[in-house]
Amino acid sequence: MTDSRATSPAAPASTFGTDLHLDLNGPGLRAGLTDALREAVRTGRLAPGTRLPSSRSLAGDLGIARNTVTEAYAELVAEGWLTAQQGSGTKVARRTEPRTAAPAAARTATAPGPPQYGLLPGPPDLAEFPRAKWLAAARRALTAAPHDAFGIGDALGRVELRTALADYLARARGVYAEPDRVVLCSGFRHGLMLMAHTLRQRRVRTVAVESYGLDVHRDVLTGAGLRIPALPVDEHGARTGDLTRLRGVGAVLLTPAHQFPTGVALRSDRRAAAVDWARSTGGWILEDDYDGEFRYDRQPVGALQGLDPERVVYFGTASKALAPGLRLAWMVVPGKLVPGIVAAKGRAEWMSSALEQLTLAEFIASGAYDRQVRSMRLRYRRRRDQLVAALARNAPGVRVSGMAGGLQAVVELPPGTERSVVRAAARQGLTVSGMAEFRYEEAGSAGRSAVRDALVVNYAAPSDSAWAGTLEALCRVMP
Ligand SMILES: Cc1ncc(COP(=O)(O)O)c(C=O)c1O
């Protein structure tokens, strides 16, 4: 036995074979190497069947003599941890007994691990992305694509998708849409950015927003140099009647079908008030129809845009019905604003790939989009009903609202408990947002009247396999 370090500085480090990290501690090199390898196999860090580096390669990497490695391997073969076969090298034995506790399991006992359950607003159930149907649509779209699809193309986006969307939006959402008014963009946020630039070019300086919403969207507007006074939100949606009282407003951003995050639909007189304001002042309504396809109990709420296509800019997205990772969204723009949007788009050249656009066009035209929405609607409705039933059983004091459509519901909590419930959830490995996260602080006390302490629960987000555990964790932290 020769426990000696290879001393020659010229000995080259091995540049081939498997890379293997080992901490060599202990009394001697051979014993240290044997222990380190045994430990790596025992804890599962080296999986059964893994081929180990050749003795020459490992000796080179560790800077030790080759026969030290050969002897350590031989000892572990004798103990049954490794197998050695002529021609196939040394491998980790395929043992049948279960591994002893892996370090990861030991860690969770002492420190909080990453969150296990997620109910944060935003994504749909990503596990349900229709991979096979999307792939089939992509194959058909690519096969049929003209050569010009591989060029940069039209600033509005591929005409195939604009045409498919114009048909779909007219049919499913009551939008007045012609393909040459449909502008494709990579997400609502991108569309809003384009619109903010266009409005600035048209000398708009102020865009009213709802007193509850996403700060990333407010940031897009302020980032473009716009002032953003707030409209209070109550149980009938944004108080659009207040638009006439606010000074110098050139546009208003609304979520009429399903206010984000309170979940209420804008009452019909308030829809009419918004349109009256736009007509009488020359203002614009920016309609964020982010989850309008998902409705459950109530009568369908069509798009506000249908009331006045010359004053309403309609925004839709594939982020809820399919996946936010696609970064595919669309605007239907009043004729007057199209040239401004095209100019803005020329400056901020981030469009979705033409191939993704063609795939979505094919997906819609073949009826797969409708089928996906219908199937997800059933699934989310079932989730929502399970959420309501579980809370009624386990926390009869809380009220659930804002759930007639969309992917999120509002779980109203006793006054003063929101922050402690969000913190308790985090301790249970559950990420969930409190309503306060979405309040626009500048809205002041007027903006606070409608919604009390609450959680905004995106019941669509967990996969089916995570749903039961997520619901249990949520019920556990209810006051
Ligand atoms: C209120 C609201 N608007 C729009 C969107 C869609 O955003 P995007 O198309 O940028 O993914 C979302 C997504 O979560 C949303 O919550």
Explain what you see.
With 479 residues, this protein is α/β, with parallel strands linked by helices. The protein folds into 3 domains: 80 residues, Orthogonal Bundle (Arc Repressor Mutant, subunit A), CATH 1.10.10; 241 residues, Aspartate Aminotransferase, domain 2, CATH 3.40.640; 106 residues, Alpha-Beta Complex (Aspartate Aminotransferase, domain 1). It contains 14 helices and 17 strands. The strands form 5 sheets. It has a 7-stranded mixed beta sheet, sandwiched between helices. Strands 13-14-17-16 form a 4-stranded antiparallel beta sheet, with helices on one face. Strands 1-2 form a two-stranded antiparallel ribbon. Strand 13 and strand 14 form a beta hairpin. The longest helix is centred in the last third of the chain and has 27 residues. The protein is globular, with a radius of gyration of 30 Å. 43% of the residues are buried. The N terminus is likely disordered. The structure holds pyridoxal-5'-phosphate. The site of pyridoxal-5'-phosphate has 14 residues, from helix 7.
